[in-house]
Sequence to fold (329 residues):
Amino acid sequence: MKIAGVIGGGAWGTALAASAARAGLITKLWALEEDVCTAINETRENSIFLKGVPLPAGISASSDYAHLKDADFVLMVCPSQFMRPVSTELIKHIRPETPLIICAKGIEKASGKLMSEVLSETAPAHPLAVLSGPTFASETARDLPTAMTLACKDPELVQKLAESLGRPTFRTYTTHDIIGAQIGGAVKNALAIACGIVEGREMGENARAALITRGLAEMLRFADFKGAEHQTLMGLCGLGDLILTCSSPQSRNMSLGMALGQGRTMDEVMAERKTVAEGVYNAEVIHRIAHKAGISMPIVETVYNILHQGMDVGEGIAALLERPLGKEF
Fold:
């Protein structure tokens, strides 16, 4: 594998393009925004979404899907809610056997489907893999050590992809569980908003640790329903991603929660941002699925009620603290 395609010119897409280029791959990035393409091609920096981080040589950017026609694999880094239309258009321009690697962390709001289920419908001829784990784009882009889970049902393909992308500072650990690799990234987005609220309310480290742990229990219940393996969720793409996203305001989801915890409104926060935190969508669709299936996810339910039902933050916190005591497992 010599040519890597990247769909998405946001911070994470740019960071993955930088890592692929450092791995010696010719890296072709597609971005919707012309100014992003111009900045990357002319200044070696994505000054729109990853300002101040110099990019290595070997990356070219275009807003034309045909730019990726020769890619040996494509990293799908568009927002989860745009995966369906973007993939539908992309496959018109690439070879039918080209593997697609899902890097978006979310569940389709309209259908309740995982990204692998969406791509199985829009790109049925393409082998699928999932790349997920505890990452902040700016650190990966600056070549600081990163470790991720790479999931694929084909053992030969996952090894080839891992060897193509992997480097000493970008470690790829493989698994066959593509469902589990997606569950952690989706559920942790909603849980990170809850942790941000705890931080914004200055409720202390004890409360945050408790919320992360009980949030992991909710993640595992949801994983059971979707047919994922617990072992996967206890690794980088589950517990690892949860710890990172719930521990730093670098996380868009946690910083959103912090602002809400400090008394700001959703409208105020979103007016200052170029991108929407995935947890806003994820909380709604995960709550809907869990409610219909009878899965107990009180933290996700509270986040949903605060974001989408107008629940007061203090009321939501009180409802969680006043839940009946019971066995931990």
Summary: The chain has two domains: 3-176, 186-321. Strands lie at 3-7, 26-30, 59-62, 73-76, 100-102, 128-132, 146-151, 170-175.
